[in-house]
Amino acid sequence: xxxxxxDKQVRPKGGKGRQAAAMARLCWAAGWPLLVGAxxxxxxxxxxxxxxxxLTKLVVDGIVSGxxxxxxxxxxxGLATVGIATGVLPQLVTYLQSELRRRIDRxxxxxxxxxxxxxxxxxxxxxxxxxxxxxxxxxVNGTAMMPALTGMFTAGRSAVTVASMLVTLWILSPVMAxxxxxxxxxxxxxxxxxxxxRSRMVADFAATxxxxxxxxxxxxxxxxxxxxxxxxxxxxxxxxxxxxxxATQTAERGLDRRGALIQSGLSGLGAIVAGAxxxxxxxxxxxxxxxxxxxxxxxxxxxxxxxxxxxLVDSLAIGHEALLFFEYHxxxxxxxxxxxxxxxxELPVLRQGIELRDVWFRYDxxxxxxxxxxxxxxxxxxxxxxxxxxGAGKSTLVKLLCRxxxxxxxxxxxxxxxxxxxxxxxxxxxxxxxxxxxxSYDLTAAENIGIGDLPALxxxxxxxxxxxxxGVAGPVRALPAGYDTMLSRTFAGxxxxxxxxxxxxxxxxxxxxTLLRDGRDLLILDEPSSGLDARAEHEIHHRLRQxxxxxxxxxxxxxxxxxxxxxxxxxLSDGKIAESGTHDELIASNGQYAELxxxxxxxxxxxxx
Length: 609
Ligand SMILES: Nc1ncnc2c1ncn2[C@@H]1O[C@H](COP(=O)(O)OP(=O)(O)OP(=O)(O)O)[C@@H](O)[C@H]1O
Known about the structure:
This protein has helices at about 15-65, 70-115, 125, 130-140, 140-170, 175-205, 205-220, 220-230, 235-285, 290-335, 395-400, 425-430, 445-450, 460-470, 475, 505-515, 535-550, 560-565, 585-590, 590-609, and strands spanning about 355-360, 370-380, 385, 410-415, 415-420, 430-435, 520-525, 550-555, 570-575, 575-580. It is of the alpha/beta class. Strand 4 (about 410-415) and strand 5 form a beta hairpin. The longest helix is centred in the middle third of the chain and has 53 residues, at about 235-285. It is elongated, with a radius of gyration of 35 Å. The two termini are about 35 Å apart. The protein binds adenosine-5'-triphosphate (ATP). Adenosine-5'-triphosphate binds next to helix 11. It comes from Fodinicola feengrottensis.
C-alpha cells in the first residue's frame, strides 16, 4: 500500500473571466429556472432598502405637510408591503439557493467522475500533477461553489442597491453622491487586492494542504494503523501535520492582519464621509434647503450606499476565491484521455493468437526502458507462462496486453488486429485478469466475486461455481451470513459487524472474481498463488490447469513448479526475452530458467534434510 506525497504544486491555469463563464454555464445547466428565480428574488431584494427609504420620506413629509389621511395610508400600506417582502424574500432566496446548491453538486460530481471514468489508461492516475488536481477537485462540490454563486447574487443585489441609493443621493445632493462614490472606490480596490492575495495564498499552500490531508489520513487509516503503531509513527506524523498546519496558519495570520488594518482605515474614511454628510444635511435642513424627510432619506442613502458598496466588494472577493477552486474541477473535466482511442472497430473472436511485435516500453520519457524489443506469440488455445526476476517487466507486459498503456514502439496484435484499432472496452470485455495487486472491496463476499462480471452480480449459481473453482467456497459458506457477509471491518453488514478474510482467502476471492469471466478469450493470471499456503497452492494450480486447458492463457509466477506444465515458458530478463520453450527444453538448455529452477528446488530439498 502506498500513499503518494504530492511532489509539486499545481496552480490551475486560465483566466478568471473564462472560469466565471464556465461556472455560469454549469449553474445554468444544473437548473436554469432556479438560477433565474434566485437571481430575480435577489435583485428585487436589492431594491427594497431604497423603496423603504423613499416611502419613509414620503410618510414623514406627508405627516409634516398635513397631507390627506387616505393618501398617507396608501403610502404607509406600501411601506408595510415592502416590510413584508423584506421579511419573506430572504427565506425564498435561501430555499432557492439551497436547491440550486444540490443541483450544482450533482452536476459537478457527475461531470468530475464521468471525466475520470473516461481516462482509458493508467497514466493520468500516475501523473503527480493530475493526482494533485484530482485531490483538490474532489473537494469542489456544490457547497464549495455556493460562495461564488451567492457572491454573484449578492454582488448583483448590492449593485442594484448601490445604484438606486446613489440616484437618491444625487437627487438630494450631487456633491455628496460623488464624495460617497469616491470614498467607496479605494475600499473596492483594496478588498479586491486582498482577495487576490488570498487566492494566491490558497494556490501557494495547496501542496501544504494536501500534505496535511496525507498525514491525517495516515494517522486515521485502518490500513496504515498496524505499521503506524508498530513503528511508533503516530507522533512523528502528527508533528509533520502540525508543521504544515503552522506554515498555513502563519501565512493566513499575516494576511488577516493586513486585512484588518486596511479595513479599519477604510471604515474610518467611510465614517468621516458619513459624518460630514450628516453635518451638511442638518445645516441644509436648518436653512430650509432640505425637508425633514429629505434628511432621513439622505441619512439612509449614505448608510445604504456605504453598506451596499462594502457588500458588493465582499461578494466579489468571496466569489473570486471560490472560482479558484472551481478551476481545479474545470481542469480535470477538460483533461483529454491519456490514450488515443477509437470508438469503432471490432475485435474478432480469438482464433489464431496474440502477438507482441518488437514491443518497447517505458513509463515516461525520463524513465529507463522496461521492455526492449519483445517479440512474443501467445497461440490460441495454449498456456504461456512468463517468469523472471523482480522488476524484469512481467506485470508491465500484462498491463500492455490490457492496454492500460500503449507500447512506446511496436504493436500488440489480436488475430492480426492492432489492439489500438478497437475501443479499449471491447478488448477488455474479452479477457479475465487477476492482477498481482488485486483489489479487496469492502463489499459482501457475493459482491466481491459478482463484480467480476456485472450481469452476474445477482446470479448466485454462477458466483458459487466461481468460488468452487477458486477454492474459496468453503470459507465463504463458513461466514456468519455466507455469501451475504460484509467483508469489511470498517463497514457493518446488514446483520451485524463485517468480517475480515485472511490474505490468502482474499486472493482466492479475487481469483473467483476473475474466473467468473469464464468464457472470455484470454485469461491472465499474474501471481495467482503468491499468498496461498503450500496445499492450497497445489490444489489451485491443479484446478487452474484443468480450467486453462484448451484456453488461451498467460500465467506469471515466481513459483516455477506452478508453471512447468505450461505449453511455453518465457523467461523475461531486463526487458527482453532471454529464452523460451517447454519446461523440459529449458532445463535441458541449462540457461536462466534451469538455474532459477535449481535454486528453488535446492531450497525445498535442503529444508527436507
Ligand atoms: N507504474 C509505473 N511507473 C513507473 N515505473 C514502473 C511502474 N510500474 C513498474 N515500473 C517499473 O518497471 C519495472 C518493471 O516492473 P514490473 O512490475 O513490470 O516488474 P515485474 O517483473 O512484474 O516484477 P515483480 O516480479 O517484482 O512483480 C520496474 O523497474 C519498476 O520499477
